[in-house]
Amino acid sequence: MNSIKIALIIGSLRKESFNRKIANALIKLAPKSCELEILEIGELSFYNQDFDENPPKDWIKFREKIKTHDGILFITPEYNRSIPGVLKNAIDIASRPYGKSAWDGIPAGVISVSIGAIGGFGANHHLRQTLVFLNMPVLQQPEAYIGEAAKLFDLKNELSNTSTKDFLTKFLDSYSDWVLKFVEPSFLKSESDSTSTQHLQ
Ligand SMILES: Cc1cc2nc3c(=O)[nH]c(=O)nc-3n(C[C@H](O)[C@H](O)[C@H](O)COP(=O)(O)O)c2cc1C
Predict the structure, then answer these.
(1) Is the Cβ atom of 76 under 6 angstroms away from ligand 1?
(2) This prediction's pTM
């Protein structure tokens, strides 16, 4: 069976980031039908519209990489009730040049992770506002606000909280089933083509 390819984009560069730990847990919890890959954004240069005509190589590579995925799952902290600048930079880079956004039409999911009790609600919804403009359909339910993140991991940095594990497993099931609706025609096409095991976009 073909698997769908999901990119994980993490909004924190911190070494001990809880968001990254959640991303790593998701990779372990993912169903076989769902291949998760972290797309790094920390080395991307700052977006500058002056470079649209002749973009830096890292922008081009990032934009191309995004297009090879069936879905994009954003996992983000909340900074001052919004998303961190590093995540907005990555989003802006791949949204250009105008009319050629790499994000266009890709089904997204949003998980916000915070040490606070309200689980990064503000960041989650600021991000959703941007995704509307980028024409990325976003999974509505279940919503994912992971609060009190510092209490969820063991000494080996593994997700140890059982109810969070169960919730993330259900979230991934819902998200991957929903993403499949967007890629199903291609799947059927590739399954009838016995010479190709590659997933078609
Ligand atoms: C600049 C800054 C602003 C922050 N603002 C918020 C905030 O608005 N809401 C919140 O819940 N946590 C806020 N925090 C705390 C983060 O939830 C916490 O640092 C979290 O661990 C960041 O995610 P990470 O562990 O993946 O790096 C802020 C942290 C920083 C560094």
Answers:
(1) no
(2) 0.92
pLDDT digits (tens, 9 = 90+) for 103-157: 999 999 999 999 999 999 999 999 999 999 999 999 999 999 999 999 999 999 9
| C-alpha span between 137 and 105 (Å, rounded) | 7
Other beta carbons within 10 angstroms of residue 196's beta carbon come to 12
| Ligand 1 mean position, distance from CA 92 (Å) | 21
* Separation CA 63–CA 189 (nearest Å): 25
Ligand 1 pocket check for 18: Cβ under 6 Å: yes
Q: Which of 85, 95, 175 is nearest to 134 (CA)?
A: 95
- Ligand 1, residue 150: give the atom nearest the CA: 21
Q: Which domains does the chain have, with CATH numbers?
A: 4-192 (3.40.50.360)
Closest CA to 119 of 89, 184, 75, 159: 75
Across the chain, the runs of DSSP E, i.e. the strands, are 4-10, 34-38, 71-76, 108-113, 144-146
Name the one residue in this structure whose structure tokens are 């000494």.
155
Among residues 146, 135, 145, 143, the alpha carbon closest in space to that of 174 is found at: 143
119 lines ligand 1 (CB under 6 A): no
